[in-house]
Design a protein that fits this description.
single chain, 345 residues, alpha/beta, Rossmann fold, 2 domains, seven-stranded parallel sheet, six-stranded parallel sheet, 42% helix
């Protein structure tokens, strides 16, 4: 098979993580494949991966060189679909599969005539979440029954890490890229309700992430007089110690196609708060492993945070339930098996 991606190894994000695990699963399942990335500069012979460093002509040449003997073409992002127009007469007899992730297919503003045409030519579509599937079929004329769910995964992180936090105060944690304005809103929502929380309880909010909005976020924290309680840690290579020793994980982002970082928190049995009407609905079971809140409802977010802050037993119960859900549904072994099932479909 031929796997086509925008990025796989040179960027960090949910889609890139999915692509990396997808390749590892292909190796574990012993499939013959070639991976080509438009923007990666990295090439790896062992992983059968070619990076084109943003050179579209190089990408097309690699595509042409590899297409003749491949029976399956996996389009790893809808933004690659316009290229189908160039090659369709030569590949229409092959099995073409599109993988969809989130906001890239939610927003009708991102749609164009070539994408609509290309989607119609897909033999099937694999979606990382039911919410993304729902939004996709609302925006594209594609049969609902031909969209299959293929959720994300993570590999196990090291446990029994030493505690990186100082002091005994309850710790809230968010991990996100501060490169995206919509993502940063998830942190601002917590900052908006934090003063009300601090009237009753002394808690600390830790933010792991780097990006162009970091300085603006620091200014907002200082303006609100929260610098004593809010800590921006920047990029952290190994987030496992922070996940293992936090008390509550929050990612109230309304742009999550899935929310891989929620799985990382669940692996360490942490209760999570995420947003409704996103792919997080496939990950967090509301009232069981955490809470799903309306991202625009500050009062609801405040109430759910207070409920978890006030009740250690509830935090423990929800965290353990999240860990159970992760182990029964989202492990790499489940990911490999799902890949195999869909490719045999």
């Amino acid at each position: 098979m031929l796997l086509l991606t925008l990025n796989t190894f040179d960027c960090k994000g949910g889609i890139e993580t999915f692509n990396q695990y997808f390749i590892q699963a292909l190796l574990k399942n012993k499939y013959s494949y070639q991976s080509i990335s438009l923007y990666d500069t990295t090439s790896d012979l062992n992983l059968k991966h070619k990076g084109c460093a943003g050179n579209i002509f190089r990408f097309i040449i690699y595509f042409i060189k590899n297409i003749s003997e491949k029976k399956i073409i996996i389009w790893g992002h809808i933004n690659l679909i316009p290229l189908l127009f160039l090659f369709y007469p030569f590949i229409k007899h092959k099995r073409n599969i599109l993988i969809i992730h989130g906001i890239d297919v939610w927003n009708p503003l991102y749609r164009n005539c070539l994408k609509v045409w290309g989607v119609k030519k897909m033999d099937e579509v694999w979606s990382v979440s039911n919410y993304t599937k729902k939004r996709f079929v609302e925006n594209y004329p594609y049969p609902f029954e031909k969209v299959h769910i293929f959720p994300n995964t993570i590999l196990p992180k090291k446990t029994d890490n030493s505690n990186p936090y100082i002091g005994e105060n309850l710790k809230l944690l968010s991990i996100l890229r501060l490169q995206n304005k919509e993502k940063v809103l998830s942190v601002l929502r917590v900052l908006d309700v934090l003063p009300d929380i601090l009237k009753k309880y002394t808690v600390e909010f830790y933010i792991i992430g780097e990006g162009v909005y970091k300085n603006q976020l620091i200014n907002r924290i200082n303006e609100k007089g929260l610098s004593t309680y809010v800590h921006i840690l920047g990029h952290i290579a190994d987030t496992a110690p922070y996940l293992e020793h936090c008390d509550i994980f929050t990612l109230v982002s309304d742009t999550e196609g899935f929310g891989i970082v929620l799985l990382e928190a669940m692996q360490f049995a942490k209760p999570c708060i995420a947003a409704t009407n996103t792919g997080s609905e496939d990950v967090i079971r509301n009232g069981e492993s955490g809470f799903l809140v309306n991202s625009d409802d500050a009062f609801e977010l405040l109430q759910k945070l207070l409920l978890l802050i006030e009740n250690k037993d509830l935090r423990t119960k929800m965290g353990k339930r999240g860990q159970e859900i992760f182990e029964s549904t989202f492990t790499f072994e489940h990911f490999c098996e799902k890949q195999k099932q869909l490719l045999l479909f």
